[in-house]
Amino acid sequence: MANRFILNETSYHGKGAINHIADEVSTRGFKKAFVCSDPDLVKFGVTQKVIDVLESNGYTYELYTNIKPNPTIENVQTGVEAFKKSGADYIIAIGGGSSMDTAKAIGIIIKNPEYEDVRSLEGVAPTKNKCVPILAVPTTAGTAAEVTINYVITDAEKNRKMVCVDPHDIPVVAIVDPDMMASMPKGLTAATGMDALTHAIEGYITKGAWELSDMFHLKAIEIIARSLRGAVDNTDEGREGMALGQYVAGMGFSNVGLGIVHSMAHPLGALYDTPHGVANAIILPTVMEYNASATGDKYKYIAKAMGVEGVDGMSVEEYRKAAIDAVKKLSADVGIPADLKDIVKVEDISFLAQSAFDDACRPGNPRDTSVEEITELYRKLV
Ligand SMILES: NC(=O)c1ccc[n+]([C@@H]2O[C@H](COP(=O)([O-])OP(=O)(O)OC[C@H]3O[C@@H](n4cnc5c(N)ncnc54)[C@H](O)[C@@H]3O)[C@@H](O)[C@H]2O)c1
Ligand SMILES: [Fe+2]
């Protein structure tokens, strides 16, 4: 079987990248932007940096901000109505995964209105048309939604996060500007950075991984491992590294899938509104231990990419432990809690385990799993 690989048409990287939005709007002949960005980003003046570029070039726009972290079906549906009234012909998504994912779902439904219920988009939906063109400007260094073919929407009635996979949603332009991420507080930098590391590690060991995706994931692990501590301290080098590292991870996992760290993190976002990166970071080492036997010699290369020395002289058990320990150390160094005790209520575990098993990322896990084994993994963490 042939492997498919999908990436953005165009991407810009580095400080000042947002200024290229003006050229892209002009060359593509876009008329009016529908700007999707969450209320906090508007309040902190982050959204304004892009609006300044639009205004100084005389471009018109409409701002849509009914977007919460772990965005809901309602956030998408009111967005679809607002888009219809706006007269816009393209979208600028400014934010973390929540703003970018909401923008993707709005863009898909506008061009494929038979999916207006949103729920029918879960999994792989056979939409016929490309979404409204999106220019995506990430403000966190984590999800890489600007280069992925995925978006995640919460069904608040069913306490369920729906992972939607659709090549029609990929933004036409990604603008990855570390200055847009500079205002992130330490905790958010740490959590979103650990989300990116989880993408790189799960994408590297997922069932569908192959040489091309391995190339992205190993490089991403290396860049993230050397940059995240600095980014949390808000150094230029750290921010630039994380902006690139999370994007490189996205180029990989978007094309091959993830595993049960994400499957187990999604229900925590749906039920407790746990930040996505925090959930992943806490679960990652435990699932790495569980998956180790199904990963051949891959943990050797993870350990090397994480900067562990002397890996070549190690036994299989030693390098697997070294890879997991390096992940645990990075997570602890950036202030992530070690377990889910303050998050998960024990009586919810059977609901969480079933929900994780039903998640679209589960089939990609390198080790075949079951509801019972996922239950056991949650139990280890509480
Ligand atoms: N599409 C994908 O491929 C993909 C991949 C992983 C995760 N996700 C989804 O993305 C969502 C999480 O996104 P996220 O982790 O980027 O966070 P987010 O978008 O939910 O934002 C979290 C909070 O951080 C604030 N924030 C964002 N950027 C900031 C900045 N520069 N300065 C100050 N505050 C800032 C936001 O206002 C918000 O309050 C989840 O719903 C998750 O399931 C999507
Ligand atoms: Fe993620």
UniProtKB/TrEMBL annotation:
GO molecular function, one term: metal ion binding
Pfam family, one: Fe-ADH
CDD domains referenced in this protein's UniProt entry, alphabetically: LPO
Domain named Fe-containing alcohol dehydrogenase-like C-terminal: residues: 189-381
SUPFAM superfamilies per the UniProt record, alphabetical: Dehydroquinate synthase-like
InterPro entries referenced in this protein's UniProt entry, alphabetically: ADH_Fe/GldA, ADH_Fe_C, ADH_Fe_CS, Alcohol_dehydrogenase_Fe, Lactal_redase
UniProt keyword Oxidoreductase present: yes
Location of the Alcohol dehydrogenase iron-type/glycerol dehydrogenase GldA domain: 11-178
Keyword match Amino-acid biosynthesis: no
Alphabetic keyword roster: NAD, Oxidoreductase
Classification via Gene3D superfamilies: 3.40.50.1970, Dehydroquinate synthase-like - alpha domain
PROSITE patterns: ADH_IRON_1 (PS00913), ADH_IRON_2 (PS00060)
Similarity remark: Belongs to the iron-containing alcohol dehydrogenase family.
Protein name: Lactaldehyde reductase
Organism: Anaeromicropila herbilytica
